[in-house]
Amino acid sequence: SGWCWRLFKQPAENALQYMTDPKFMERTLKLPGAQPLEVLEAVYKSLVTDKPRSWEDCVVWARNHWQCQYNNNIRQLLHNFPPDQLTSSGAPFWSGPKRCPHPLEFSTNNDLHMDYIMAAANLLAQSYGLPGSTERSALTKLLQDIKVPEFVPKSGIKIHVSDQELQNANASVDDSRLEELKTLLPSTEAASQFKLCPIDFEKDDETNFHMDFIVAASNLRAENYDIPPADRHKSKLIAGKIIPAIATTTAAVVGLVCLELLKIVQGHKKLESFKNGFMNLALPFFAFSEPIAAPKHKYYEIDWTLWDRFEVKGIQPNGEEMTLRQFLDYFKNEHKLEITMLSQGVSMLYSFFMPAAKLKERLDLPMTEIVTKVSKKKLGKHVKALVFELCCNDETEEDVEVPYVRYTIR
């Protein structure tokens, strides 16, 4: 799933940000180390060098990517560290956890090779809004006409031999290449004509090629290192981070949950009527305890717990949305609370120490407009309510703890 993210999600997301966010370049150049160069190289590839215009282009890209990953990179590795390489202490370099790899030779008669090309080409087509194909015979014919550049070992390539060495290495930034990329990238107006769709990994759809790609890619890498291949089921467990569960345990948990649900339906109000359950079917062990009441807080004479909240309807009877001024007045009049700070997520929407000019600008803006402006993120059409956190003073100007606000907008 990591490869899916690096190939078909992250580059497309960065390219989309480049096209739509005016501050993307400025923000990228402030990244530490070699990250600016890596991000801009990926954007350049997405919008220029790797951009396919047809299904055939997707197949060419997939074939070259296969060659790079499973042949050229391995041959370069063996060029830097030959099979008979010795360490400074005279011990074999390729020993213990370091398996000596071998390059693979592509063949259209190898089902695993063809699975990789089919999945990779279709995923690339999906990310650029192009039609894909599942015709294996037509794919074989296309591949026979593709000429792959011959591998030539590169000199001066530094390959880190351990994770620690990689972390300690100071990545040198090629400033001239960085400047070149800034001029080579297409204008945002021209780039905006491209259709790009970042691909989110979904393991349970058997028709989207996600698991096909992951199974083929991981088993090809395993073959490089003479590691036994994994079947689709095992690959799905690993890629989907699925925790195996025994059906009997799940059934027992569901049974206990249903018992508690029945108590709610029957109208039980006393906390001691409900039970927490603990079990281990292997022993077997069953234990029950009474739940602990949620801690109580108080403002004025009103008790509240973490289950409570203020419900505020953002849309008023006249159809207009509540402004910040009206929101502050609502709490002052309805709850006798003076809001000193108001936030949504990590965005500070209002504070008593806010500069006067900024406060004047925000007071008569609708709440959702302030959220969008401060967070720099548009609210999706699926968003029906927002959660606001408050800091308040009571009528004696003492700090009081209050519940959060559920602000409905649809």
TrEMBL record:
Pathway recorded for this protein: Protein modification; protein ubiquitination
Any one Gene Ontology cellular component term annotated for this protein: nucleus
Protein name: Ubiquitin-like modifier activating enzyme 1
A GO molecular-function annotation: ubiquitin activating enzyme activity
Ligase as UniProt keyword: yes
Domain Ubiquitin-activating enzyme E1 C-terminal: from-to ranges: 274-405
Source organism (scientific name): Cyprinus carpio (Common carp)
SMART domains hit by this protein: UBA_e1_C
PANTHER family: UBIQUITIN-ACTIVATING ENZYME E1, UBIQUITIN-LIKE MODIFIER-ACTIVATING ENZYME 1
InterPro entries reported in the protein's UniProt record: ThiF/MoeB/HesA, Ub-activating_enz_E1_C, UBA_E1_C_sf, UBA_E1_SCCH, Ubi_acti_E1_SCCH, Ubiquitin-activating_enz
